[in-house]
């Protein structure tokens, strides 16, 4: 059976796990190597290294935002076009996406390198942190084209019905990074620059792997020369659908900056380092949820395009139940092992105490995040960009930013930690309302 045809015919439960498990494994390993990176930096470079990486993190989020603008937008369109049995346009979307990625990488790299130091200073890099942050970010930006290609086109591999290969792409990248990090930091004494170099090399291998696949006989869709020329209607469609994850990541960057300034004010550089650890642990715990979300996306998109709405509903329901269960397990794990987890990154007792408290409070509503992520992703999968954008921005901007600015005035550093769960609760309620209306309109409830 053609991989894309299976999306509309195989049993939903079997299909969802076939797509989700590779995505979960790939994303878990991907998140794990970010955690391992931080452990190596924290123990090999020290607290200054952790703070430098955290300060530079918003720049990486902005880069990822532009990658998602193209990668997620294109992959969603590909799923829908395959559901409509329109393979020619799916290939045209793939070709346009590659061209846009290359143009974007060049523009972003030049702009980033030209204005890097003032950007880092604006992000809160103090004199003792600036040199490390600058070295790390220069290397990451210089090799960003590999990140854009690997990330952007790997989404399309999954969308065309090949989740195992998409997983393998991430496993290869993560494995190389995990091997090279200790070699460069400890063996070759390259410090924080070694961590960045390991990341770029691993992304380069991933990019070459993905390009090789689309030029091979194994792929359903092919990169064809005639489709590399951008077509206005396709570029606009990619941008429109990709706008929600783009703004989500952009908002995450802005939130991180606001967080960093608030943390510096109420807890100093140590609080920034603690937040860096908390973010990486949270990312690791949420990767299974994101994997289920990615696994469900092509199934929902294909069946929505084929007007098989009951299959859309069944996919959504099973994905929400699985994501909520995983989130609950993560919540229990955090509440029991909070301080032990922070201690893996650095042995400073003050950092462990601060980070443990932050981790426990910030993820106190983790069980409901699974529902919110899957439900918001549904609107992305069916091409309803405005709904997806609103639900995404409700947490990241409309609720979270005001909470970060308001609560510390009353509760100090604890108020910063509390902002996250308050935003989680409010956005979950709003997402539930919109999803209920949507499912009623499809007449599946």
From TrEMBL:
Main location: membrane
One of the Pfam families matching this protein, by short name: MatE
Transmembrane segment boundaries: 15-36, 48-72, 93-115, 135-153, 165-186, 192-216, 237-264, 270-290, 319-341, 361-381, 388-410
Keyword Transmembrane helix: yes
Keyword annotations of the record: Antibiotic resistance, Cell membrane, Membrane, Transmembrane, Transmembrane helix, Transport
Locations listed in the record: Cell membrane
Family recorded in the similarity comment: Belongs to the multi antimicrobial extrusion (MATE) (TC 2.A.66.1) family. MepA subfamily.
PANTHER family according to UniProt: MULTIDRUG EXPORT PROTEIN MEPA, SPORULATION PROTEIN YKVU
This protein's name: Multidrug export protein MepA
Organism: Sporomusa sphaeroides DSM 2875
